[in-house]
Amino acid sequence: MIRKIVLLLLLATPLAAQETEFFIERIEVRNHRRVSPHVVVAESRLREGQSVSEEELRDASARLTRLPFLLSVDFALERGTERGKHVLVITLQETKPFFFLLDVQQYFDTQSRYVEADDDSRGATGENLALGFRWFVGRRGAVHIGFSGIDRDREFSREYASLAAGYTQYDIFGTRAFATVNLTMPVQDSSRAQLSPQVVVGVPLSANQTLTLKYDEARFEQEILDYDSGYEQRIVTARWTHNTTNEPFFPTRGTLLYAGPVLGWTDGASTYTIVGPDGTDVRTQSYHSRFYGIETGAAKYVELTDRDSVWGDVRLETSRAEIRDSFDDNDADRVSNYGSAGIGYSHSLWSLEERAGGGDSRLEVTARYANRTRRHYPEFPERQAPALDTRQVGGAWLRRTSWGTLRLGVGYAW
Amino acid sequence: MVTRTALIALLFVALSARAQRPSFTAQNGVIAASLPASLLQHASVKKQLGSGLTTTFLLAAAREGKRAGGARIEIRYDLWDEVWLVKRVEFDGKIDRQRITSLEALEKWWRTPVRLLSAGGNRILLQVDCNVLPFSAAEEEDARQWITKSGGVGTAAGGGGGIIDVLIGTTISAKPIVSFRWNVDLSLR
Fold this sequence. Notes:
The structure holds two protein chains of two kinds.
Chain A: H1 2-18, E1 21-30, H2 37-44, E2 50-53, H3 54-65, E3 70-79, E4 85-94, E5 98-108, E6 114-115, E7 127-137, E8 141-150, E9 161-169, E10 178-187, E11 191-192, E12 196-204, E13 209-224, E14 227-243, E15 254-276, E16 279-303, E17 308-325, E18 330-348, E19 360-377, E20 388-400, E21 404-413
Parallel strand pairs in A: 1-4, 5-21
Antiparallel strand pairs in A: 1-2, 3-4, 5-6, 5-7, 7-8, 8-9, 9-10, 10-12, 11-13, 12-13, 13-14, 14-15, 15-16, 16-17, 17-18, 18-19, 19-20, 20-21
Chain B: H1 2-19, E1 23-27, E2 30-34, H2 38-41, H3 43-49, E3 55-63, E4 66-78, E5 83-89, E6 95-100, H4 103-111, E7 114-118, E8 123-134, H5 139-150, H6 163-169, E9 178-187
Antiparallel strand pairs in B: 1-2, 2-7, 3-4, 3-8, 4-5, 5-6, 8-9
Helix pairs in contact in B: 5-6
């Protein structure tokens, strides 16, 4: 014990004393073309007139590189107006105003059939296709239009692709929080378009932690011959995220942890006409559900060398739904549990210098196991769904440019 | 004439490549590397050195694929005092910290051999990686792990973990600016 204390004094004190703080008189953003410098400063969580350590600058730099509209950032200090004061210069490499994320991985089984791997991508994001335009307006705003295909695979709710237009306000009331308001229009076969709102609020808790609140509403209407149906879902999520990764979509180092509750409602109604010997009968069927659950996940990315990276992740979700279905007068509760674990290795085809601007080209191999169980209460044996076990291995090519990010891959699942 | 020009060009390229390479020495079983000044002149390194923030050089020596030693060098230019603040942490925890007032003095200090590991035997084959990182290492975390992991005693000979992990482990989360790798074949006799 005494030895440790002596060592602490000998080692920790001089090392800690080296930790230097810099007084930041001004923050100057350079090489910005489309991105608002105010947004960059707000997202860095640094403030003028404060002293910061190199660790805080490093965290701020990492936070900025996780923004989807920046490819890379460089930090440097310059002299301020008085001794001891500094100008923090942040030099940007921006992405283009057009953006895309294309994540296509085809899995086949022994009969070379395409199979649904029943899992999303390795990270927290589930979109496999997103594209659109983003413009920065004013000091702290950005508008966007685009298309998004969602493959979130959340239980008790529908996945849908949509057209979206929205506005994001950064640094709300000087708090570094942001809010996005979206109007989405689900794109479904034989559906009548219905505008639905979506609101996302992000509150940074620290340089690496964020609390994100999301309200997502979607409405669908279908009319096929004499069959009318309408469906509406509302989902509220709150998610705490700890993120030290180096890239928004396919990172190579850092840690990602997330956890949070999900609460949702679905309402459906359909009207159909039965023509029989006794005449025409118009019937209505309704469906209501309320579901709630917890979604958690963790991922760790480690760079072995300047080109090679390995990662592992786990995702655990549990949710319960109370369902009222008038069709067969069946009121039931359902419970779904989901877990998956994956590992992967990626190798960059580019050297560090070629990647200095933020782009990358990588080859990746992955392996994953996923399991889902679903149970009905009260227990009707004929309604119990078998557990879904999925094992998959695959390979993919990843490419990140100033235009967007893409992953193309194939794999085998069983 | 053309042949002679080509030969001179080849010699120049060879010398340039050699200039990038450190020289390794062994004394009393301790392996040290004298780093070339040209490394400081590398465009990416030079840019970072001029940033007013710390540039960290992380040296990791591997023997037969296992980590055998390492060292860390940190350099920061103080914009107001116009001095170079430098620190060198060698494999056994020895720390050298200085304030250097000129670029010439910095290059001289830079070329001073940095001790990477101790080893026995007649001959040693090493692979030495040098990662150049922006920002300083996480100092407090270093000290904490130093205490809890190894009791502060360096595992000098052939140790694959302990102090070496402490020396280099915590900074690896920063994005390298550039990296170098050298293969070393050294006689210890």
